[in-house]
């Protein structure tokens, strides 16, 4: 069974950009949306692993924020 959905041009272009040559749009949506629910993967990390992952994500976000602020400053000065 198939369903038709409407996508804006922007959404279609983004999906098309992420679609691999060897997959259908349906396969791309399943891959990008994830085939598992969050409930299925809950508990796969130990508390220690989850904490380490949380810290790594926070650190990366901080570095990215600093990098973006530097870019904004550079562009503002130009």
Unreliable stretches, pLDDT < 50, 5 or more residues?
none
Mean pLDDT: 91
Helix content range of the residues, please? 55-70%
Taken from the alpha-carbon principal axes, the silhouette is flat
The first-to-last residue Cα distance is 55 Å
Class per helix and strand makeup:
mainly alpha
The total strand number stands at 0
Q: Write down the secondary-structure element order.
A: HHHH
Give the amount of beta strand, in percent: under 5%
Q: How can the largest sheet be summarized?
A: none
**Compute the gyration radius: what is it?**
19 Å
The number of distinct helices, counting runs of at least 4 residues, comes to 4
Give an account of the 3D structure.
With 78 residues, the chain is mostly helical. The model has no long low-confidence stretch (mean pLDDT 91). It starts with 8 loop residues before the first helix and ends with a helix. The protein is 69% helix and 0% strand. The chain is built from 4 helices and no strands.
């Amino acid at each position: 069974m198939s369903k038709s959905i409407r996508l804006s041009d922007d959404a279609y272009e983004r999906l098309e950009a992420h679609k691999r040559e060897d997959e259908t749009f349906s396969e791309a949506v399943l891959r990008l949306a994830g085939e598992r629910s969050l409930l299925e993967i809950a508990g796969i990390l130990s508390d220690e692993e989850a904490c380490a992952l949380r810290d790594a994500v926070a650190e990366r976000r901080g570095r990215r924020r600093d990098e973006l602020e530097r870019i904004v400053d550079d562009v503002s000065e130009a």
